[in-house]
Amino acid sequence: MLSLREGFDRYPKPKDITYSYGTAGFRYIGDLLDSVAFRIGIIASLRSISLGGKTIGIVITASHNPPEQNGVKVIDPMGEMLPQEWEPFANEFANCETFEEFQKYIKQKLQQVPDQRVRPRVILARDTRASGPHLLKAALDGIAVINGTATDFGMLTTPQLHYLTRCFNDPKFGRNTENGYYEKLLSTTRRILSLYDYTFLPSVTVDTANGIGGDKLSRIDSLSDVLNFGVINGKTDHPELLNVDCGADYVKTQQKLPAELQKSSPKPDQLYASFDGDADRVVCYFVDGKTNKFRLLDGDRIATLFATFIGSLLKQLSGVDITMGIVQTAYANGSSTKFIQEELKLPVYFTPTGVKHLHHKAQQFDVGIYFEANGHGTVLFSKKYTSELSIFLATTTDTKQKAAAQTLLLLADLINQTVGDSISDLVTVMVALKIMGKSVNSWGADYTELPNRLFKLKVKDRSAFKTTDAERKLVSPSGLQAKLDEEISKYKQGRSFVRASGTEDAVRVYAEAETQEECDNLGSGVCELVKAFS
Ligand code: G16
């Protein structure tokens, strides 16, 4: 067995790097992550011991980032992100330089647990990146030095590993195998459709960013006729093509079709979708048959579609007391927020970027819908939701009301309750459009987006950019926010903010305004100010 000392020496920490557990775990160039992957194996094991041996997950992925990058993150027993109070420990432990320090951190953590003899259990999965197998080996060694048991699930989407982690700790949630994931998705879809006498959903073409999502969609295709997907950018065995000119991040930030679709002629007025590299984000889009223009249906649109769908079903039930709220980030288009508040008459809350923030806020509602504009999100349903609807279902005799209540209950099984999941989110979009008889054009006409643009700037030190008010205002560098406010005030419906990325070494600038020209000018003006302050 590998000793702690041998493991520490086998995976030395590079001297000139300070690692940080960012928006979604540690992310760097894959070749620079060996020591972090080894240590994440230890962190996950310690987390498992601290929870009396509950199963913890590790995902090796850099999601939307370029192929040469990679990342590691820890999943908690109920499929949620590592609690934020563990992040300072993760940071200190990932950065300690000497074996003495390294050993001290482990001892300190173990001293805090009720029973140190508990054997940790960890499950792992990775995306398709070339550095994945190597980092997996390092993580397995980290688990081994703490005498943990590890199960490697091979290549999965990130949400599949979230699902599995939950299943190991909460068997009612589903079967703890990859097939269990598909069974739950397919049987729930079939049951919802049968309530409306449908047997299948129309096929949708999905750009899977040359990532793991392509393989998994093909698997779903082969298992059932309920769902059919045409996969493009499905070259899973070419990791160097991951997220290159394709995928959810490309489509959202460039506001255009994936390159592959630009070359062909997408069918007008048809639903298309793009996943990111590990299939935890989805954006939809279509080409308008009248104008021949690309129309993006991003995370904000998916949130409003789900709210409209769930709201319309709830409206059919009398006397059911269910609260619904929507959680967004500063990136949400101002028009979407207005639509939610004024048309849907629902409350909107803002949190900083990162699922870990949105997820917790959404848990405060019976139906908590959270989506980042980039397509990362889900809908959470409370225990009260299930019990109220079950009681309603048992008492009503009305066929239509029964179907509505059953659909609502089944949605809690269809939509991944642990994290944003491109596959289950897309299927929910398809189900919602089918049951509401809504076309993509009608979905796109719910509101008109304000022109918006996202910029990425390289700066000397991104940690100098500190924010408050759900990242909508800067508190540092000193004096910059006042300059930004002055710039923003020059534009009609102008809104802009600046924040440091938690997944890339860059600062992001978001701008929106009444016209595209004004938006572009505002964005460029803000970028100039940022450059002057960095
Ligand atoms: C991750 C997070 C998302 C976040 C995105 C960008 O996405 O899970 O919540 O919006 O990074 O974050 P930042 O602007 O801090 O770089 P993914 O899909 O890469 O896991």
Q: How would you describe the overall organization of this protein?
A:
This protein has 19 helices and 19 strands. With 534 residues, the chain is of the alpha/beta class. It folds into 4 domains: 152 residues, 3-Layer(aba) Sandwich (Alpha-D-Glucose-1,6-Bisphosphate, Chain A, domain 3), CATH 3.40.120; 118 residues, Alpha-D-Glucose-1,6-Bisphosphate, subunit A, domain 3 (Alpha-D-Glucose-1,6-Bisphosphate, Chain A, domain 3, 3-Layer(aba) Sandwich), CATH 3.40.120; 146 residues, Alpha-D-Glucose-1,6-Bisphosphate, subunit A, domain 3 (Alpha-D-Glucose-1,6-Bisphosphate, Chain A, domain 3); 81 residues, Alpha-D-phosphohexomutase, C-terminal domain (TATA-Binding Protein, 2-Layer Sandwich). The strands form 5 sheets. Strands 1-3-2-4-5 form a 5-stranded mixed sheet, sandwiched between helices. A 5-stranded mixed sheet has the order 7-6-8-9-10. α2 packs across α5 and α14 runs antiparallel to α15. It is globular, with a radius of gyration of 23 Å. The protein binds 1,6-di-O-phosphono-alpha-D-glucopyranose (G16). The site of 1,6-di-O-phosphono-alpha-D-glucopyranose has 18 residues, from loops. Catalyzes the conversion of GlcNAc-6-P into GlcNAc-1-P during the synthesis of uridine diphosphate/UDP-GlcNAc, a sugar nucleotide critical to multiple glycosylation pathways including protein N- and O-glycosylation. It comes from Dekkera bruxellensis (Brettanomyces custersii). Keywords: Acetylation, Carbohydrate metabolism, Isomerase, Magnesium, Metal-binding, Phosphoprotein.
